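TL;DR need structure tokens for one chain.
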Amino acid sequence: MKIARTTLIETIIGIWILAAVVIVSGVFFVSNPLAYVLGEIVGSATASLLMLHMYRSIDIELDLPEKKSVNHARIMIIFRSFIELGVLFGSFYIAKWVLPYTVLAGLFGRKFAPLMVPVMEKFLGNCETRSARSQS
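>> reply
TL;DR here they are.
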């Protein structure tokens, strides 16, 4: 689970890196920059919490028998999907303060951040190698 925990942390970092890119790239082109930023923060925070929930669910499922584990995984996937949809549709009701399309962009961070994990591992591995060389 140590590798899974490291991957979880790297994925959450990736979600927030993507959030920063979305915020910086679009905040100057919208009429309501505060709602734009808040939407991205809400979406990214939800994505981060859902990744944490997925990590905890996998930890639980590893201790269950196979059939119960599969059923638990299916229920948790449905639960996370409803949470995503609830946050997205809820943002339409408060669109004055939170822009729904930036909430959607933040939620997509959960899908795109894992693609960044190998790049981050390569970068962090190079940093660790350099620091080990400089210490010796």
